[in-house]
């Protein structure tokens, strides 16, 4: 069973809630024309991570649906099951409910790994793959570099404005766009007194990160025979380095049988906004 509810935003997006793989899963259906593009966000992010791509005109080229993965955004957060296999089952079940026989599967960071996993394990359901800033080997100091992003988990703030003020101090946010506000708004629960608490659970996210690293990517990626668009943003993230150096991204691209490789402006986070977003949309438009 599932239901739709329409929020009267100026962009006419729909919030979609479905029962999938035993969980309540939330997605944002932006509409649009062309093939269905299903997007999965990064490790601790949510469906609104792609609002910057929508602002850059992505729905001109595809019907875009962005999903909250289990334990993020408005989707249900079970105590366990944060593996690639279970998360992939969530996506396939979502597709079944929405009667989507096949999609272009795309993702940012963790969502890109999920896209590769789906393409390898459910090849008839995935026509093409879009992988934004992900590779088998990220920067060797990735855990330390993600410190500012992971540090927000489990914290309570007096108001959303207070939370946003902290977010804006992150070293990787050298630009700010209004589309970022909706992303961070979807990152928190708001209590009756106006205080906010981050939604992703640190234990769940640790499990998800550990499980994705344990997958045999060197063996799996050559099995992804669908066309793949890989996009890398080698701008400085933290610690005076990119989260995904171009050489590491190209190393992964070399394992894919049918790959198109693009470089865009920005870093691992800001690539989804501004000029980076416009360049990503242009690459997707020609790819799909």
UniProtKB/TrEMBL annotation:
<dbReference type="GO" id="GO:0016020">
    <property type="term" value="C:membrane"/>
</dbReference>
<protein>
    <submittedName>
        <fullName>Alpha/beta fold hydrolase</fullName>
    </submittedName>
</protein>
<dbReference type="Pfam" id="PF00561">
    <property type="entry name" value="Abhydrolase_1"/>
</dbReference>
<dbReference type="InterPro" id="IPR029058">
    <property type="entry name" value="AB_hydrolase_fold"/>
</dbReference>
<feature type="domain" description="AB hydrolase-1">
    <location>
        <begin position="35"/>
        <end position="266"/>
    </location>
</feature>
<dbReference type="InterPro" id="IPR050266">
    <property type="entry name" value="AB_hydrolase_sf"/>
</dbReference>
<dbReference type="GO" id="GO:0047372">
    <property type="term" value="F:monoacylglycerol lipase activity"/>
</dbReference>
<keyword id="KW-0378">Hydrolase</keyword>
<dbReference type="InterPro" id="IPR000073">
    <property type="entry name" value="AB_hydrolase_1"/>
</dbReference>
<dbReference type="GO" id="GO:0046464">
    <property type="term" value="P:acylglycerol catabolic process"/>
</dbReference>
């Amino acid at each position: 069973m599932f239901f739709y509810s329409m929020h009267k935003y100026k962009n006419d997006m729909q919030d979609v809630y479905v029962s999938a793989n035993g969980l309540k899963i939330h997605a944002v259906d932006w509409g649009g024309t062309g093939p269905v593009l299903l997007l999965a966000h990064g490790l601790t992010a949510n469906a609104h991570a792609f609002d910057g791509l929508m602002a850059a005109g992505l729905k001109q080229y595809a019907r875009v649906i962005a999903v909250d993965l289990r334990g993020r955004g408005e989707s249900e957060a079970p105590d366990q099951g944060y593996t690639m296999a279970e998360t992939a089952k969530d996506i396939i079940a979502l597709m079944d409910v929405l009667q989507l026989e096949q999609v272009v599967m795309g993702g940012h960071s963790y969502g890109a790994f999920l896209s590769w996993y789906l393409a390898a394990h459910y090849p008839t359901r995935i026509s093409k793959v879009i992988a934004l800033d992900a590779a088998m080997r990220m920067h060797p100091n990735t855990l330390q570099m993600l410190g500012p992003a992971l540090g927000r988990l489990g914290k309570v703030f007096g108001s959303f404005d207070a939370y946003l003020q902290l977010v804006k101090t992150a070293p990787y946010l050298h630009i700010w766009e209004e589309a970022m506000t909706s992303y961070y708004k979807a990152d928190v629960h708001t209590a009756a007194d106006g205080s906010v608490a981050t939604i992703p659970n640190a234990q769940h996210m640790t499990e998800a990160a550990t499980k994705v690293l344990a997958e045999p990517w060197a063996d799996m990626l050559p099995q992804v025979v669908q066309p793949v668009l890989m996009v890398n943003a080698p701008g400085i993230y933290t610690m005076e380095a990119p989260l995904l150096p171009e050489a590491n991204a190209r190393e992964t691209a070399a394992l894919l049988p049918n790959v198109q490789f693009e470089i865009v402006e920005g870093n691992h986070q800001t690539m989804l906004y501004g000029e980076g977003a416009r360049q990503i949309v242009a690459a997707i438009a020609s790819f799909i």
